[in-house]
Amino acid sequence: MKTLLSYSFSSLATHMHNWLKNVITNDLLLTVTELVIIGVCLLVFLILLAFFLGYMERKVAAFMELRLGPNRVGPKGTLQIVADTVKLLFKEGFTPDAADKFLFNLAPGIIITTALLAVAPIAYAKGFQLWDINIGVLYISSVSSMAVIGILMAGWSSSNKYSLIGAMRCGAQIVSYELSIGLSLISIVVLTGSLSLNDIVESQANGWWIFKGHIPVLISFVIFVVASTAEINRAPFDLVEADQELTGGFNTEYAGMKFAMFLMAEYINLFVVSAVAATIFLGGWMPFHIGGLTGFNHIMDYIPSSIWFFSKTLFIIFIIMQFRWTFPRLRIDQLLNLEWKYLLPISMVNVLLVTLMAIMGWHF
Amino acid sequence: MLLGEEDHFNEEGEFVINIGPQHPSTHGVLRLKVWLDGETIKKVEPHLGYIHRSIEKMSESFSYRQFGYITSRMDYLSAHMNNQACALVVEKALQVEVPARAQVIRIILCELSRLSSHLLWFASAGLDLGGVTPFFYAFREREAINSIMEETCGARLTQNFMVPGGIITDLQPDFQKRIKEVLKQFKDNYHEYNEILIGNVIFQNRMKDVGVLTREDAIALGCTGPVARASGLSCDIRKHYPYDGYEKIQFDEVILTGGDSWARCEVRMAEMLQSVHIIEQLIDNIPEGDIVAKTKNVIKLPKGEFYQRVETARGELGVYIVSDGGSTPYRCKYRSPNFSNLMAIPHISKGHKIGDLIAIMATIDLIIPDIDR
C-alpha cells in the first residue's frame, strides 16, 4: 500500500526510458523515438479529450435545456461526436475564390498549434508532466495569446465582411482580457515565488491557494475564470463567432476538417484554461489537504492524484459550460467596459493586496 | 480580391454589409443593407420582396369563402387573427350576426395564438442575443399549445379555423380540459422566463436604452401592437374598435412609456398574462348553440368598400375589400402590422452597434412573409 501511495508516474517514465535505451543505442534516435511516442500519446489523448468535451457539452446543454441530447449513435449517444467528426472529414475543404489561399489554409493550423503548445507544462498527476519548464505560467499565457494571430488571420484571409468584423472584435477582446488573466496569475506567482507549475502545485501541499489566500485569491480566481472564458471566445463572450450577428464570425467560410480544427482548438483551449485554473488555484493534482491534520490528509492521499486533477478541471469546465447555456451574449462595448472599467482595476488593486499579504505573511 | 479594396467601402469610407436575405437572425428572408463605421451603424435600409407571393392579387380570384385561407401564410404566428379579420370583413359587409359560441371560441383561439406567438418571440429574442436555453423553455409551452391547435384545427401552424359566419367545425370534447392544463403549465413556468432571460443582467443591459422609439415617431411611422404600446401609444384594436365580443371581456391594455427594447419586452411579457386572463374568463363560459351563421352558398358582397381591423400578436391588421357586387373581391389590400413596424428599424437603430440591431430586430418581432405578402 505504501508503494502505491507514493507511486509517481515519473518511475513509469524512467522505466520506459531505460527499456528504450537498451533497445535503441543511438542517442539521437532515442530522443526522436521518445518524442514521437510522447507526441502520438498526447495527440490521441487530446483528440479523445476533445471528443469527450464535445459530448459533455452536448449533454450539459441538453440537461439545461430540458432535452435529452445525443442518444442514438452508440451507447447513450457517446459515438455521436465520432459520427460528426467522420462527417466533417468527408466534407469538401472549400477555399473561397476571393480568399488569400495561403493564409486561409494556414490559420486553422496556427490556432490548433497554439492550443497544443499550451498543453505542454500542465501537470496531470504527481510526477506526470510533459515539460517542467521553470516559467510555466509565463509560457502558457504567452503561447495562448498567440491564438489571436490565427483568428485574425482566418478572419482577414476569408475575404468575408462578417469574418473581418469577427476578427476585429477578436483583436480587441483577446488583447484586453489577456491583461486580467496575467494579473490574476501574478497574484499566485507572488504568493509562491515561482513561475513553475510544479512548484505552484507543491506549494499547495497544506491547503489550496483558494482556501489559503483569503478573499484576494478568491477574487483572482473569479476574475481568472471570467477572463479566460472571454479569452477562449466562449459564450457569453463569443462575440468573435456571434452566430446571430456575424453568422459564425471568423470561421464563416470554413468547412470540413478546417472547421473541425477550430472546434477542436476551442475544446483544447477550454481544457487548458480549466487545467490552469485548477492547477493555480485548486491545487492541481494535490489532494485536499488541511495543514496539521495528518490523519485526514493521509486519507485524502488514497485518492489518486490524476483523479484529483481531472475532477477539479472538469468542475471548472462544467462551470464554464454553464455560463454558455445560461447567459446571453454581451455587446462589444459592454465587453470592453467590463474589462477596462471593472476587471482590470479590480485585478490591479487585488495584486497589490496579494503582494501585501505575501510580504506580511498573512496567508495560511 | 481581398477585403480592403475600394469596392467594399462607399465614398465616405463606410463599410457596407448586407444582413440577410440569408441570415440567422432576420427570421426569414429580410435583407437589411447596413452602412457601418467600425461597429457603429450609420444607416439601415431594408430591402423587401424576397418572399413576395402576391397574396393580395391572388385574393382577387378567390371567392369570399376561400380568400381567408391564404392569409394564414402571411403572419403565420397569428393565423387565427388573420383568418378572423377576413371572416369579419365579410360578416360586416353581409351584416351577419355571428353566434355567441363561435365568438367565444374565436377569442379563445386568438388569445391562445397570441400567447403562443409571444412565446415564440421570447424564444427567438433569447436566441438572437446568443442565449439558446430560453428557446427551449418557451417551446415547452408552445408545444403544448400547438398540440391543442392540432387537435382543434388540424394544423399546428397555419391554422384555418375561422370562416365567414363563425368557425369551421365544433370543438373536440376535452378542449377545455386541455386548455386549462396548458394555462396552468404556463403560469407555473412563467417565473422561469424571468429567471432565465428577462431578469438576466446581461439581457437587461442589452435591452435598456436601445432603439428608443418615441410616441411621435411611433404614430408617424404607423407602428402598432406591442411596439407602439411600449412607446406609450394606446392602440389596441380590441379596446378601441372591439370586435367579436371583446367589449364584454375584462383585460388591460398594457402601455409603457419607455419606448426602448426593454419596454417592448416588458409589454409582451405582460400581454402574455393578459391573454391568459382573457382565456380564463371564457374557458368555463363557452355558450352552447350554433357554431356558424347561415350564409348563402356563394357569398356575394354588396357593391362598395369594406374595412375591418383586428389586433394580431404584432399589431393592427387591416383588411380592405373593394367589391363590385361579384363573388370575388375586386381589390383586396392588407394593412399588415409588420410592414409598418419594420419601418421603425432604420429609424431607431442609427448610432447603435451591430449587436443592438439584432436586439432591435428581436424586439420589433418581425414576421417577414407578412411584410412582403
- Helix percent of chain B reads 40-55%
The largest chain-to-chain contact, stated as pair and per-chain residue counts, equals:
A-B, 37 and 36 residues
Q: Order of strands in the sheet with the most strands of chain B?
A: 1-2-3
Number of helices of chain A: 16
Spatial separation of the terminal alpha carbons of chain A: 31 Å
Oligomer: heterodimer
H and E order of chain A:
HHHHHEEHHHHHHHHHHH
Q: How many β-strand stretches of chain A?
A: 2
The CATH C-level class name of chain B: Mainly Alpha
If strands are numbered along the chain, what order do they take across the biggest sheet of chain A? 1-2
Residue-averaged pLDDT of chain A, rounded? 83
Count up the helices of chain B: 14
Helical content class of chain A: 55-70%
Number of domains of chain A: 1
- What is the CATH homologous superfamily assignment of chain B? Cytochrome-c3 Hydrogenase, chain B
Give the number of DSSP strands of chain B.
8
Shape of chain A: globular
Topology:
The complex is a heterodimer of chains A (364) and B (373).
Chain A: H1 2-5, H2 9-23, H3 27-64, H4 80-90, H5 101-117, E1 123-125, E2 128-129, H6 136-144, H7 147-157, H8 161-192, H9 197-202, H10 209-212, H11 214-231, H12 243-246, H13 256-281, H14 294-301, H15 305-326, H16 332-360
Antiparallel strand pairs in A: 1-2
Chain B: E1 15-19, E2 31-37, E3 40-47, H1 55-59, H2 79-94, H3 100-128, H4 133-153, E4 162-163, E5 166-167, H5 175-198, H6 201-207, H7 215-221, H8 225-229, H9 237-240, H10 261-283, E6 304-312, E7 315-323, E8 331-335, H11 337-342, H12 344-348, H13 354-364, H14 368-372
Antiparallel strand pairs in B: 1-2, 2-3, 4-5, 6-7, 7-8
Primary descriptors:
heterodimer; A: 364 residues; mainly alpha; two-stranded antiparallel ribbon; 2 strands; disordered N terminus; B: 373 residues; Cytochrome-c3 Hydrogenase, chain B; three-stranded antiparallel beta sheet; 14 helices; 8 strands
